[in-house]
Design brief:
Order of helices and strands: EHEHEEHEEHEEEE
Structural class: alpha+beta
Largest sheet: 8 strands, mixed
Distance between the termini: 34 Å
Strand content: 25-35%
Number of strands: 10
Number of helices: 4
Shape: globular
Helix content: 10-25%
Length: about 200
């Protein structure tokens, strides 16, 4: 996607001379490291986490310095994303520092499984620090109704962050059949722990 900006010099306005506007294109490849953060590209994660060669599309949390290779949803990036159409990823509001009351708008559908949700209504996935961060991401993605958080042990380049997968439909334990088993670059095999599912009420 390209943005077109129209520039007019203040001196032209003062002098009363009518000038032809100058246009230029700015590629989002430059802004987001070549990753399109729109729904057309699963918000930067076109390959779902259960498929080979997958990688997270974004990071949302308090430790962006740990993920220089990902689009970290903070600061200037968030300001730029606010200017883009609704089908682009938008930065969520940070969840409160203390866990919200039971009425956070989500109902647990499964907890502490060793499999992650694998389904055709997959929207995107990234890395987060907390379950609350993942719910905040779902609240910021149009059409998201279900979050699955889990630890992908030996996956994600050894990161200890939670994987946060977003879906457009609610799921139960019967869909949590991604148990890992993918070979990693260091020869280890990944596996899933602490998988929790939450459906928007």
């Amino acid at each position: 996607m390209h943005f077109t900006a129209i520039l007019a010099a203040a001196s032209v306005a003062v002098s009363g001379v009518v000038a032809t506007p100058v246009t230029f294109d700015v590629s989002t490849d430059f802004l987001f490291g070549g990753v399109e953060l729109s729904s057309n590209n699963h918000y930067g994660a076109p390959i779902p986490p259960w498929a080979a060669n997958h990688k997270p599309g974004w990071y949302f949390g308090d430790n962006p310095h740990l993920f220089p290779e990902l689009n970290c949803l903070e600061g200037l990036l968030c300001k730029i994303l606010q200017l883009l159409p609704f089908n682009w990823l938008h930065c969520p509001a940070k969840p409160p520092p203390t866990p919200p009351p039971a009425g956070d708008g989500y109902t647990p559908t499964f907890q502490n499984l060793t499999g992650a949700t694998q389904a055709s209504d997959y929207m995107t996935y990234g890395l987060v620090d907390t379950v609350a961060d993942c719910k905040a991401m779902c609240n910021s993605v149009s059409g998201c109704t279900f979050v699955n958080t889990y630890h992908d042990v030996n996956g994600k380049g050894g990161s200890t962050q939670l994987t946060c997968s977003l879906f457009s439909q609610c799921h139960d334990a019967s869909d949590a059949d991604n148990v890992g088993g993918q070979s990693q670059p260091d020869g280890s095999i990944d596996f899933i722990t602490s998988s929790d599912g939450y459906c928007k009420k």
